[in-house]
C-alpha cells in the first residue's frame, strides 16, 4: 500500500468509526470490506460519499431508536438504506400489500400505486392485492419488474365501519385461499394515502407496527384512544400500554400477520355478538394484541404521516402521507 492509499484507508476507517459510534447500524465488516467487493480502499470511501444520505452520517440524538423491549424504533438517520436493502435483497422476499378500495375509495388507487412504484420497496418483488367491489375502476398502472396487481372481488357495504372491519375477514379468507402460496411478508395499508419518500427494507420484520402520528410524543398512556369499555374484547385497562399504533400501515411475516388479522376478525365478531363495536374498530383490536405480543420492529410516524398536519422537526422525512378527504362525501354512510 502506498502512502496515498494508507491515508485514504485511514480516512475511511475513521468515517466508519464515527458512523458506528454514533449508534447506527453496527454490522462492522458487512459491506465494503472484502477484496472481492472492493479491491481498493478509495472505492469504499467513494461508495459511501456517493450513496450515503447526509443524515445517516450525522446520526441522531433527538429521538429514541429502541423500544424498552429492545426492538428497533426506526427513524430516518438510524439506518443505512443501501446496506439494509442489500441485506434483505439477498433473501429476495415476496411482499404482499393488501389494499381495500370499496365504493368511492377506488379514486385513491391511482396515486397510491403510482407513488408506491416510485418509493415502496423498489427493486423488491411486490404484489398489490386490491380488494374491491368495482373491478372496472382499478386503473392500469405501469409496474416495475417483479411487481404485480391481483384483484380480489368483495361485496359492497352500506357502513364504512363494515368495510374497515371487513378487511380482517377478507384478508384471512384470501390468505387461506391464495396469498399464503405467493408471499413471505404481508402489509395491510389504507388506500387513502400517497408515498413521498423511500419506504424500504428497514420496515421489514416479523411484526412491524407504526406509531400513530397523533399520540407519539406528548401523550401519556392513559390518554391513548384505546378501547376503555371492559365489555369489549379490545379493552385495555388504565395504566397499561406502550404506544398507540395506527391500523393504516402494519406488516410482518405472512404467518404472523395472518394470526393477527384473524385475531382482529374473531375479536370483532365476539364484540358484535355482544352488541358492541370497538371505538376504533380493528385499530383497537390491533392495539390490544400488540400490547401483549410486542412488535419486533416499531416504525416512526414517518411511515404514516398526514396531510392534515404540519411536520414537526423530528419528522425529517414523510414516507407516506394520508390524504385530506371529505369523509361525508366519500364514505357510504358519511361521517367520521
Ligand atoms: C390513519 C389511520 O389511523 N387510519 C385508520 C382510521 O382511518 P381513516 O379515517 O383513515 O379511515 P378510512 O376512511 O381511510 O378507512 C380505512 C380504509 O378502509 C377502506 N375503505 C373504507 C371505507 C370505504 O367506504 N371504503 C374503503 O375501501 C380504505 O382502504 C380506507 O383507506 O380508522 C379506521 C377505523 O376507524 C382504520 O383503523 C384506519 O386504518
Ligand atoms: Mn385512511
Automatic annotation (TrEMBL):
Give the cofactor note text: Binds 1 Mn(2+) ion per subunit.
Cross-referenced Pfam families, in alphabetical order? Glyco_transf_6
Tree of life domain: Eukaryota
Q: Where does Mn(2+) bind?
A: 190, 192
Topology term for the membrane: Single-pass type II membrane protein
Name the InterPro entries on file.
Answer: Glyco_trans_6, Nucleotide-diphossugar_trans
Residues involved in UDP-N-acetyl-alpha-D-galactosamine binding: 100-102, 105, 190-192
Q: Tell me which cofactor or cofactors this protein depends on.
A: Mn(2+)
Q: Which UniProt keywords apply?
A: Glycosyltransferase, Manganese, Membrane, Metal-binding, Signal-anchor, Transferase, Transmembrane, Transmembrane helix
The residues that the entry says bind an alpha-L-fucosyl-(1->2)-beta-D-galactosyl derivative are 212, 283
Q: Name one GO cellular component term.
A: membrane
Protein's GO biological process: carbohydrate metabolic process
Question: Which family is annotated?
Answer: Belongs to the glycosyltransferase 6 family.
* Protein's name according to its UniProt entry: Globoside alpha-1,3-N-acetylgalactosaminyltransferase 1
Amino acid at each position: 500500500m502506498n502512502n496515498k492509499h494508507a491515508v485514504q484507508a485511514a480516512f475511511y476507517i475513521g468515517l466508519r468509526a464515527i458512523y458506528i459510534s454514533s449508534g447506527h447500524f453496527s454490522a462492522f465488516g458487512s459491506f465494503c470490506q472484502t477484496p472481492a467487493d472492493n479491491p481498493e480502499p478509495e472505492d469504499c470511501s467513494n461508495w459511501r460519499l456517493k450513496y450515503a444520505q447526509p443524515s445517516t452520517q450525522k446520526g441522531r440524538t433527538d429521538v429514541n431508536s429502541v423500544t424498552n423491549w429492545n426492538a428497533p424504533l426506526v427513524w430516518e438517520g438510524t439506518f443505512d438504506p443501501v446496506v439494509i436493502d442489500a441485506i434483505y435483497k439477498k433473501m429476495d422476499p415476496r411482499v404482499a400489500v393488501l389494499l381495500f378500495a370499496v365504493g368511492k375509495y377506488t379514486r385513491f388507487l391511482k396515486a397510491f400505486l403510482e407513488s408506491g412504484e416510485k418509493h415502496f420497496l423498489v427493486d423488491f418483488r411486490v404484489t398489490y392485492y386490491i380488494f374491491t367491489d368495482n373491478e372496472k375502476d382499478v386503473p392500469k398502472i405501469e409496474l416495475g419488474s417483479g411487481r404485480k396487481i391481483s384483484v380480489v372481488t368483495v361485496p359492497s357495504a352500506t357502513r364504512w365501519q363494515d368495510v374497515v372491519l371487513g378487511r380482517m375477514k377478507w384478508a384471512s379468507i384470501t390468505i387461506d385461499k391464495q396469498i399464503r402460496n405467493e408471499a413471505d411478508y404481508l402489509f395491510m395499508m389504507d388506500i387513502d394515502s400517497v408515498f413521498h419518500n423511500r419506504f424500504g427494507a428497514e420496515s421489514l420484520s416479523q411484526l412491524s407496527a407504526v406509531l400513530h402520528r397523533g399520540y407519539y410524543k406528548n401523550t401519556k398512556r392513559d390518554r391513548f384512544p384505546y378501547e376503555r369499555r371492559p365489555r369489549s374484547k379490545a379493552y385495555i385497562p388504565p395504566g397499561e400500554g406502550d404506544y398507540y399504533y395506527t391500523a393504516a400501515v402494519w406488516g410482518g411475516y405472512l404467518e404472523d400477520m395472518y394470526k393477527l388479522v384473524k385475531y382482529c376478525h374473531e375479536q370483532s365478531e365476539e364484540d358484535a355478538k355482544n352488541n358492541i363495536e370497538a371505538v376504533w374498530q380493528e385499530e383497537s383490536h390491533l392495539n390490544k394484541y400488540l400490547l401483549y405480543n410486542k412488535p419486533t420492529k416499531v416504525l416512526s410516524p414517518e411511515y404514516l404521516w398526514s396531510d392534515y398536519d404540519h411536520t414537526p422537526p423530528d419528522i425529517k422525512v414523510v414516507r407516506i402521507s394520508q390524504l385530506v378527504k371529505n369523509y361525508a362525501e366519500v364514505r357510504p354512510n358519511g361521517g367520521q
